[in-house]
Each structure stands twice: as structure tokens, then as C-alpha cells.
Amino acid sequence: MNESMKRYLAEFISTFSLVFVATGAMATNNMSNGSLGLIGIAISSGLIVMSMVYATKHISGAHINPAVTIAMFITRRMNITDSISYIIAQISGAIIASLLILSIFPSAITDFNLGATTLASDVNATSGIMLEAILTFILVFTIFGSAIDKRAPNGSAGFAIGTAVLLAILIGEPITGASMNPARSFGPALASGYWVDQAIYWIGPIIGGTVAALVYDNVFAENTRT
User: Is 0.90 topped by the overall pTM?
Assistant: First the structure.
């Protein structure tokens, strides 16, 4: 297998793992009458992201998220071919994970739309986009500071990024689902057929991730090009 295919496969596996664990935790919480709760779901998502960063950062950069890949493309760290291939791999991983969750937890599609992200009943689209953009800004800023910048302490990326995901979910999950990741929202939506608010989970994360990347790149970065 050539190096490009290894990178794409790493993105497929890491995004698959994120969506499988994140939605699986929600399914388990549903079946166990809320035993995990918000904290358990947040910890599950944060830890799987941390694990995948440590497992694949040296292979693909551990984007695990189309918004991150777009941020890398905007800041000229990736070419268009690799960027598109990464996003295809990420979305494919999310879809396969969602279909497997559906087969393992068939009641999940009726109980909570297979973990598809959606806005709280009293939250409008503008507020949803703003929150998703802010949370993704924090996530991508953390990625650039801990995983991209060569001055970052060795071995810090996985812990920093996983912690950012965990805290963002604690804040945002009851409001928007705290997706911060178009693939995380797209996979369950496709598998469940629940497309409500789907555009928000593309617009918000892409805006937030792009702004974070440009801010870090133009204000804080030093010799980060590879």
C-alpha cells in the first residue's frame, strides 16, 4: 500500500472510531436509562479522539474531521487532491460506523435518531451556527497549537485535543450536540434519514475551523510549514 493510501485509511479508521464510540455511548446511555449521562458521553468522545490522535498523528496528521482538513487546505498545508481524499475517507468512516451502530442498536434510530446531531428546541439556526463555530474554533486552535506548531511540547497533542473535545461536549451537547465535525453529523444523518439542521453542522464547523487556522497561522505560528 502506498503512503497516500495509508494516510487515507488512517483517516477512515480514526473517524470511524470517533463516530462509533460517540454514538455508541449515546446508545448505551439510552439502553441503561441514562447511566452514562452527559459526562460519560463527553469522556467517551474525548478519550477516543485522544486515542486516535496518538494512533494516527504520525501517519495522517489525525484530522478526523473535514473541518480540520479544510483548515489545513486553507493554510496551504495540504493540496486539493489529498484534501478531497481525506474528506471522502472521513465521511465514509462515519457512514460505516453509523450503519454498524444501527445494526447493533436497532432501537437507536427511533429513540434518538442514531445519535444524529440536532438543535435544542429553543435554539435557532443562527445561534446553532455560532456555537458550533465557536466550539470548532477552540478545537482547531488547540490542534494548531499542540499538533501543528513545532514548538509544542512533545506528546501533548492527543491529551490537549481530546480534552478540548470533552469540554466542548460538556458545554455544547445539550444545545447543538457539540458536533464540531461535519462527518460526525453526516454519518448518523445518512444512516437514520434524519437530516434536520444538517447544514448547521457544515457551516458552523467550517467557519470556526477556518478562522482558527487563519488566526493561528498569521498571528502565532513560527516556521510551521512542512
Answer: yes
